[in-house]
Design goal:
- The protein is α+β, with helices and mostly antiparallel strands.
- The protein has one domain: Gcn5-related N-acetyltransferase (GNAT) (Aminopeptidase), CATH 3.40.630.30.
- It has a five-stranded mixed beta sheet.
- Strand 4, helix 3 and strand 5 form a beta-alpha-beta unit.
Length: 163
């Protein structure tokens, strides 16, 4: 990397870059398992930019970006989730997305985003943080495990109709 990157809250002008990264996230997950993940459709970038735009002002959500020289390298999206009897889980922080652009991976950006979003969740008074990660995403699993995350659930899927 030519210059250090910074982590900061996302702003509305970041939405096109966030949409591109969100579209990438959707495509990667769909490629992992088309029977489980939402098809990207014709404009996942636009859809993801719109969705994350709805989250920017929420009090119980953080969308953080890693930026270098005006370029968004990756983002993290997390929130505070209420107690869930369905999930047998007390109120907790939940990391929904953590993605780094392919050409910028393995440079500590994902780890820095993870640390920043964990700090934000700690500031929100959360005692624990939960996340889901695609079974095939072993690189992400290593990042999370190095930080101390442990496996607690296994999601299983069966296709009942269609292909």
């Amino acid at each position: 990397m030519s210059a250090p990157f910074t982590i900061r809250p996302a702003e509305p002008e970041d939405l096109p870059a966030l949409g591109r990264l969100g579209g990438l996230l959707m495509r990667e997950h769909y490629a992992y398992d088309a029977g489980r993940f939402l098809p990207p459709g014709d404009d996942p970038e636009g859809g993801y930019a719109w969705f994350l735009g709805t989250q920017l002002k929420a009090d119980d959500v953080a969308v953080l970006v890693a930026e270098q020289d005006g370029r968004i390298l990756g983002y993290a999206y997390a929130g505070v989730e209420p107690l869930s009897w369905r999930d047998l889980r007390d109120q907790s922080g939940f990391i929904h997305d953590l993605v780094v652009a392919p050409g910028d991976r393995k440079q500590g950006i994902g780890t820095a985003l993870l640390e920043a979003v964990l700090a934000w969740l700690r500031q929100q008074g959360q005692a624990r943080v939960v996340l889901w990660s695609a079974e095939q995403n072993s690189a992400a699993h290593r990042v999370f495990a190095r930080r101390g995350f442990r496996r607690t659930m296994v999601e299983m899927t069966i296709q009942l109709t269609g292909s």
